[in-house]
């Protein structure tokens, strides 16, 4: 197994770093050995590790870990974007979250990362027409992580959901690349419409804790939404909005607010 990991690591420096961090974690805290070996060191690639973690977290009496792992393995094998997105999400958390000191942490401990990867598998199932299975993944993800993302939503790469409790993202929502959001964010509808009814979030947007973005509206690239805001109208690119209902209070303050994570309204 060590030889296999070494060969994989030679062509995958990210996986090499994760396994090195895992080995260090076991040396520092031997009681973590069982978990770390099961989730990381027993696997030959990051996709196999993520498949195992997905299945272990979502398994229940209604759907076994074996079946869930087969589903995830199939998705990773058939859709390279799943693993590309997982890698981008991992690096986004490592670069933006000051509480993340190792690439190992999101895989083992961060429910925001794990829930987004579960959504991605559910979305792959949705796009394959396997909607009942996708709904099951959505249900279990909500039950286990407290995050409800409809499998029909379209979410880009490099997503960071910090803390992640009580996130809700509706069926027709679109989230661009390199978006950051904090806990209790809702991307929801405003009525009983059955068509396109959810927000469209541009690339590089920062959404503060507790913000509600409602209806088929557009949030422009690299904008900021202050914590607790209720957004009911379109936001132009590179602006900061705050309040209930949200109003433009200034420029975004930097080129990439989702990366800087700066939530201050004044400097």
Strand order of the largest sheet: 3-6-9-12-14-15
Radius of gyration, in angstroms, nearest whole number: 19 Å
Helix count equals 10
- The helicity comes to 40-55%
| Structural class label | alpha/beta
The low-confidence runs, each spanning 5 or more residues with pLDDT under 50, are: 1-6
The coarse overall form would be globular
Largest sheet: 6 strands, mixed
Average pLDDT, all residues: 93
Distance between the termini: 53 Å
Assigned CATH architecture of the largest domain: Orthogonal Bundle
H and E string: HHHHHHHHHEEEEEEEEEEEEEEEH
What's the total count of β strands? Answer: 15
Strand content: 5-15%
CATH class identity of the largest domain:
Mainly Alpha
Overall structural domain count: 2
Looking at this structure, what is the CATH superfamily of the largest domain? serine acetyltransferase, domain 1
- Provide the CATH topology of the largest domain: serine acetyltransferase, domain 1
Describe the fold and architecture.
The chain contains 10 helices and 15 strands. It is globular and about 50 Å long. Helix 2 (13-28) packs antiparallel against helix 3, helix 4 runs antiparallel to helix 5 and helix 6 (80-96) packs antiparallel against helix 8 (111-127). A 6-stranded mixed β-sheet has the order 3-6-9-12-14-15. It is an alpha/beta fold. It starts with a helix and ends in a 7-residue tail after the last helix. The longest helix is centred in the first third of the chain and has 17 residues, at 80-96. The protein has helices at residues 2-11, 13-28, 33-41, 46-58, 65-78, 80-96, 104-108, 111-127, 131-145, 257-260; strands at residues 147-149, 154-155, 160-161, 167-169, 174-175, 180-181, 186-188, 200-201, 206-207, 212-214, 218-219, 224-225, 230-231, 239-242, 247-251. Helix content is 45%, strand content 15%. It folds into 2 domains: 13-146, serine acetyltransferase, domain 1; 153-266, Hexapeptide repeat proteins (UDP N-Acetylglucosamine Acyltransferase, domain 1).
